[in-house]
Amino acid sequence: MSFLKVENLSKHYGGQRRLADWVTGNKPFTVRAVNNVSLTVEKGEILGLIGESGCGKSTLGRAILRLHEPTSGRAIFDGTDLSTLDAPALKAMRRRMQIIFQDPYASLNPRRTVAEIVGLPLQLHGIASGEEARAITAKIIERVGLKPNQMDRYPHQFSGGQRQRIGIARALVSNPEFIVCDEPVSALDVSIQAQIIALLQELKQEMGLTYLFISHDISVIGYLSDKVAVMYLGEIVEMGPVDAVLARPRHPYTQSLMSAVPDIDNPGKGARVRLTGDLPSPVLPPSGCKFHTRCPLAIDICRRTAPVTETVGPGHQAACHRLAEGIDISQTGAA
């Protein structure tokens, strides 16, 4: 049994008629942020989730944890269907599942000290209080690279990288097993990114953690992950072992992402694929394959029928009508 199994998870917003809609006669709209996503994560594994900004990656991570209630589908964590848990049971489960947020500036309460921010989960879950909680907090603060004598400072007294370390400490203090890393390095300078990535790797080994690592940087995903899932407009279009997917991407969208990665060892690796147009709106997604409006390989069936997910290798799946042809988008002259 997989440690985390997500089955047909969807998260839609809107859909209810507002007062303004009655006045103007407009129909209510629905934003399909995440649509019928299924994936698995094994214990001790890092699943990298990648896609453009706005494709639904963060929404999926939060829906798995029920920070956003899913519209349909379910997430099964260590054999427990999270959708069946009431508030007290979900609170208890949250001790085992945590999240590191993307923005280290917005995710910390500016009116609380570091000791209060990091120590709060200990109180909420009844793990420790008073001097015991402070001692545990000091230990985890030191482990993430800060000094215990900084515990009584406020977030504004720290740099962006230090704030993200505080966010990591808060996520780890309750000794969780699974962490959603929601683009934890995207707001940081490159040199600081490397430090945070190294820290996350060390903590994974020390604490036996399992990560869902969300990023828009395929190089980071390739470096960190065991498996990768590629997301486009709320749907998974390709998923599999990271070495297989990055060595031979089968979906045109994955191929376009890979073509954007500089390769100093192979400068003549092929023409850069530049997709035309913007990411379509999740309010009115295209019919058929949602990528067809930007795909240079699109044919008539792509506009009419959504592709099914097919197995293309051991643990490697992709959803494209042209998989059987094995076409590489970088060889089509679409640059």
Tell me what you see in this structure:
It is globular and about 65 Å long. Strand 11 and strand 12 (316-318) form a beta hairpin. Helices cover 31% and strands 21% of the residues. The protein has an 8-stranded mixed sheet with strand order 6-7-8-3-9-10-12-11, sandwiched between helices. It folds into 2 domains: 4-18 and 29-96 and 176-331, 3-Layer(aba) Sandwich (Rossmann fold), CATH 3.40.50; 110-174, no CATH class. The protein is of the alpha/beta class and 335 residues long. The chain contains 11 helices and 12 strands. The protein has helices at 19-24, 57-64, 87-94, 114-124, 130-143, 160-172, 190-207, 218-224, 242-247, 252-259, 300-304; strands spanning 4-14, 30-41, 46-50, 72-77, 80-81, 97-100, 178-182, 210-215, 227-232, 235-241, 310-313, 316-318. The mean pLDDT is 90.
Tell me the name of the CATH class of the largest domain: Alpha Beta
Order of helices and strands: EHEEHEEHEHHHEHEHEEHHHEE
Shape: globular
Derived structural class? alpha/beta
The portion of residues forming beta strands comes to: 15-25%
Main sheet overview = 8 strands, mixed
Q: Report the span from N to C terminus.
A: 43 Å
Average predicted local confidence, pLDDT:
90
Task: Summarize the entry for a quick read.
The chain is of the alpha/beta class and 335 residues long.
Descriptive tags:
globular, four-stranded antiparallel sheet, Rossmann fold, alpha/beta, 2 domains, 335 residues, 12 strands
Secondary structure topology:
Elements: E1 4-14, H1 19-24, E2 30-41, E3 46-50, H2 57-64, E4 72-77, E5 80-81, H3 87-94, E6 97-100, H4 114-124, H5 130-143, H6 160-172, E7 178-182, H7 190-207, E8 210-215, H8 218-224, E9 227-232, E10 235-241, H9 242-247, H10 252-259, H11 300-304, E11 310-313, E12 316-318
Parallel strand pairs: 3-8, 3-9, 6-7, 7-8
Antiparallel strand pairs: 1-2, 1-4, 4-5, 9-10, 10-12, 11-12
Helix pairs in contact: 4-5, 4-6, 5-6
